[in-house]
Amino acid sequence: MTAPAWVIRGGRVVDPASGHDGVADVLVRDGRIAAVGEVGDAAGTERFDATGLVVAPGLIDVHVHLREPGGEAKETIATGTAAAAAGGFTAVCCMPNTAPALDSVDALRDLAERVRRDGRVRVYPIAAITRERRGVEPVAFAALAAAGAVGFSDDGDTTANSAIMRRALAASRELDLPVMVHCEDKALAAGAMHEGAISRSLGLPGIPAEAEEIVIARDLMLARLTGGRLHVCHVSTGRGIALIRQAKAEGVRVTAEVMPHHLVMSDRWVAGDRTLHNTDDPAGNPARPADPETKVNPPLRSVEDTRLLLAALQDGAFDLVATDHAPHAVADKAGKPFAAAAFGLNGSETALPLMLALVRAGHVSLPDVIRWLTIEPAKLLRSPLGTLSPGAPADVMVFDPQERWVLTPETMRSKSKNTPLLGMTLLGRVRLTVVEGKERYRA
Question: DSSP strand E in 318-416: where?
Answer without folding.
Answer: 320-321, 396-406
